[in-house]
Amino acid sequence: MKTKGAILRELNTPWQIEEIEIGDPKAHEIKIRMEAAGMCHSDHHLMTGGIPMGGFPILGGHEGAGVVEQVGDGVTDFEVGDHVVLSFIPSCGKCKSCKAGVANLCDFGAMLLQGEAVSDHTFRIHTAAGEPVYPMTLLGTFSPYMVVHEASAVKIDKEIPFEVAALCGCGIPTGYGSSTRSGDVRPGEDVAIIGVGGVGTAALQGAVIAGARNVFAIDPVEWKREQALKFGATQAFATVEEAMNEIGNATEWGMCQKVVVTVGEVFGKDVDTWLSITAKNGTCVLTGMGNMMENQVTLNLSMLTLLQKNLQGSIFGGANPKLDIPNLLSMYKMGKLKIEEMITRQYRLDQINEGYQDMLEGRNIRGVIRYTDADR
């Protein structure tokens, strides 16, 4: 079928809305009519080259929610009319990682940037001229229709608004899990969240719900600091340097047992700064993405050893998507998790560049594309 999509044809150029051709679902695949797509910083990394895809053109988007329109052979967990969230990392349930309880490291993840469907290693999406299109993490939610492997979809409660559900494809479980799973925040601990955009605000809520004593939010944008206080932060600061004395005084200079880094782009030169507010035997969780080509890190190795600190990487917040996405949405439904309040603005597909400009300039916690018939 013919539809539209937000395409990148080369680095450091704006998104272009183009006609694309979406193929029918093959074995173990489903076709989805998309209703909403979250605008995550990781898709901006496609534009800069920080996340290198297998080729161009690229169809962006890895957060989204919609309705199943068609199922391929062998699909048993979904039927037409189901509401689903797209999980940016698939969960096959069969590989060693899935069986070991780390579904966020599913073996299908090795193919996320190659563009070829995991079912048969062919391309499902083509341009109007017939060029194969590389969809972000085998999804491409910046289009009102998608064909994906069943491992990339999670069935959800039909009462959940699509714009809320969309954020659970990446940002909410990534942030919440960075605190509660990767960070293992315990009641009474002191926590710092570095960067309070969409992922950081979810991490902040995770720390609060886990029972943290103090939650210090650190972000250079004043408006975001104000919002962080509304989501449960006890204090907010522009920089680590500004926060240092206040964190020290509040913790009797024990500093934070957990520091969760959710900035839009991680630079190696900043790692030791984040560790400077991490307590002895504490953990600094790196959730934000750095450029895949960067391999230089500033780190005082002696202090890392002598103070027994931990530097923990985290992808998808350590989430089990098939379990955690419905659970997080049930928390939203019960009023325990604020997701709707994180959506600063909704956009049309043709406003995508405006939406990313708003994100880069600190005007959004999370922007969402809401699809209409005009987009299809």
Automatic annotation (TrEMBL):
Residues covered by the Alcohol dehydrogenase-like N-terminal domain: 27-157
Coiled coil stretches, renumbered: none
Annotated Alcohol dehydrogenase-like C-terminal domain residues: 198-330
The protein, known as: alcohol dehydrogenase
PROSITE patterns: ADH_ZINC
Cited PANTHER family: ALCOHOL DEHYDROGENASE, ALCOHOL DEHYDROGENASE CLASS-3
Homology family: Belongs to the zinc-containing alcohol dehydrogenase family.
Keywords: Metal-binding, NAD, Oxidoreductase, Zinc
A molecular function (GO) term: oxidoreductase activity
Keyword NAD: yes
Chemical reaction(s) catalysed: a secondary alcohol + NAD(+) = a ketone + NADH + H(+); a primary alcohol + NAD(+) = an aldehyde + NADH + H(+)
Domain of life: Bacteria
Cofactor annotation: Zn(2+)
Pfam families: ADH_N (PF08240), ADH_zinc_N (PF00107)
Assigned EC number: 1.1.1.1
Zinc listed as a keyword: yes
Residues making up the signal peptide according to the UniProt record: none
